[in-house]
Design goal:
By secondary structure, the protein is mainly alpha-helical. The radius of gyration is 27 Å and the shape is elongated. The longest helix is centred in the first third of the chain and has 30 residues. The mean pLDDT is 89. The chain contains six helices and no strands. The protein has a domain of 63 residues.
Length: 124
């Protein structure tokens, strides 16, 4: 095997890896898009499965501009969910705050009006 053959083999291998990555990215984007209904998602999936090269290229041309926006929206949603989870498990949730307010009220440090105002603020 010559160096030239090795070069072409490596080139085709990396092109294949890029193709698989692009195909997976398109499938993820099809299912992530909330603007598409189920029928349109099925049509895009069938188009990409039946004519993979043409389907992916048409998808990238027609809907590629908004792929990044959907990725950013998904990342923001995941970040918010992670922050909420951290708040909940760290004891900084609304239930713990209500419990603290209840203890302050029973100790006589808060009046009924102050307790109701703080409770409303927490639940809002």
């Amino acid at each position: 095997m010559s160096l030239f053959d090795l070069f072409w083999s490596m080139l085709f291998f990396f092109m294949w890896v890029i193709w698989v990555w692009l195909l997976i990215t398109v499938f993820i984007d099809i299912f992530r898009d909330e603007e598409l209904n189920g029928v349109l998602k099925a049509v895009w999936v069938l188009f990409v499965i039946i004519l993979p090269l043409l389907g992916v290229l048409v998808y990238l041309v027609s809907r590629g501009d908004s792929m990044h926006e959907r990725q950013v929206q998904q990342a923001v949603k995941q970040q918010k969910m992670a922050e909420q989870y951290i708040r909940d498990v760290s004891g900084g949730g609304a239930a713990d705050e209500l419990e603290k307010l209840g203890r302050l009220k029973t100790q006589g440090l808060l009046t009924e009006d102050e307790f109701a105002a703080q409770k409303a603020k927490l639940l809002a």
